[in-house]
Amino acid sequence: MLDIQVIDDPAAATVALEPMRSRLLSELVAPASAATLATRVGLARQKVNYHLRALEAHGLVRLAEERKWGGLTERLLVATAASYIVSPSAMGPVAVDPNREVDRLSASYLIALGARVVREVGDLVRRAKETGKRLATLSVDTEVRFRSATDRAAFSNELAEAITKLVSKYHDESAPGGRVHRLVVVAHPLPQKSEPKEPS
Questions:
Q1: N or C: which end of the chain has fewer CB within 10 A?
Q2: CA 183 to CA 96: how far, in whole Å?
Q3: Count of structural domains, the chain
Q4: Cβ neighbourhood burial of 56 (10 Å; 0-12, 13-18, 19+)
Q5: pLDDT by residue (tens digit) across 88-125?
């Protein structure tokens, strides 16, 4: 089972986003039969089978085991991943693209960058899996609390200078066997946690 599966097929995205099918995917972290799932989700087994066939047809669940009970065969299915994310490429020509954004300081440009990361890395993961290779990546995730807007601006300037210096040091356009990597650095305010309401 993959940790994360990136869905780039529009039909598979439609199937995965249907509420009952999404629920069935969450139930299939461990192998289960249609009969077991029907009890858990409160649907008829035939209806569950209908949803499972759709999920299986789009590669979102797979056969884990078959058990023989007298003359019957019970199929146990399992999700292909622990969690799923829909790639922007599933949206086709209307998918967000940072090359179409003008204001590089806008929130929409940051979202477009994030979408491109999902699209590109999702495609690289798929290719690596097909060839049995490992994909080398680097990510840094941290939080910083600025005292003021002035400090935030100073931090941004210093960070940009540091990255420019590192890139100029290590970038080699003509190195034989070299491979271009994309570096994206983003910063955004954290969503504020809602305060618990006082009992009345």
A1: C
A2: 19
A3: 2
A4: middle
A5: 999 988 988 888 877 888 899 999 999 999 999 999 99
